[in-house]
Amino acid sequence: MKPIELLRLVWINLSQNKFKVIMTSIGIVVGSATIMLVIAIGTGGKMEVAEQFKNLNAGAIDISYEMQSSGFGGRMSSGGGMPSFGGMSSGSGRPSGGGMPSGGGMPSGGGMPSFGGGMPSFEGGMPDFGAMFGGRDSESDRMNREKIILSEEEMEELSVFVPGLSDVTISYSSNASVEGGELEESANYTIAGVLYNYMEISNLSMQIGNFIAEENEEGKEKVCVLGNSVAKEVFGSAYNAYDEIIYIDSRPYVVKGVFEEMGTVASGINPDSSIFIPYSTGIKYLVGENVSPTITVIAEEVNDVETVITNIETVLSDIYPNAEFTISDAGSKMEAASASNETLTILLIAMAVIVFIVGGIGIMNVLFVSVKERTNEIGVLKALGCSRKDILLEFLMEAACTSLVGALLGVLLALGITPVVEALSVRVELSVFGALLSLVFGVLTGSIFGFYPAYKASTFVPVVALNQE
Asked: Do residues 161 and 299 both lie within one domain?
């Protein structure tokens, strides 16, 4: 049979059973749409990760310290005195609710036991109740640990004693009320205290004006740089904000500049929705010494990050022997985010494969039924001279075309679902490659699962097929 005649015969069979073709290909429709969305979501996830960390140097390492509570349930007094039990006051041995009961002594039914000669004396002062009840560390160790606050001194020591660093900075963030511009009432914004080199380390860029200068830091000047979103919210635009005055915690700050829109996070600070002030200015006027800053160092070579982290731990352990710092590098963050995205992609692919298998089995079952129903037709074709190959190709092409129809409908379904997925805050990047791959998977599924029914049809004996009822 000529190819054109074979195609015409396939077209006639499919066009006469349009509804059956569509119902048969439902599984392929779902599988094809899933494959296309898997690729689109995977590509969108990779782009999201890349944009999220585009303003982080691959060699950036963040160092921070979290305050830890004492094991006794509260901070011990620095003088090492008695802890307060119930109503006992810290300054005397009497109950805090009042004096001793009248009547000459303790009540006979209970109260404090008699020590014979008053409270026992302790040579060399009171014992360390924090160490007795709180754990292994002494009270002084816990006090030292609680008092740890990273500062520019530690930053300088790291820059001197840790080899392989290209730059180092320190920053913190806090919340404060902001007034000025077009704001009708005060609003809370993130205030970031940073050094002059923060912009370069974080790969940020200015839309207008200049970033904080070293002299601003040294003079504790009340100047600020606004994130792009903040400038729009407070002044309407970045250009209107430049050289204007805003009030942070009721103090006036001159706007030196505005960042370009980033839409990402730099060292835990979102540059779009934050206000940046000199580090020393914030310490003096805003947060005081009660702040938990983050030191960020940049390794000269990305491959040496692990070595740099080890050296940082060594230097910090020499300064604070009993402290545990949180150290994380940008590379690990990127790898973790990419791994999460890849895991999601694998799960979606597995789901698509399962759907394709189910759809393929459906096509196989329908073809088996079709072969049985068309046994006489097969006998006629063989009697007219069609070979086994012709019969095999006919049914195989019908299966492939049915799958192709399902794959095309699946691509259209994916295009229709995309706005819904994007509404769920999932980034979707559709591509021609994803659509083509969906079509290929659909056709292959139909061809693979349709082969056996087609083969069975090609093996029919003409006489037996013609006599089949």
From this structure: yes
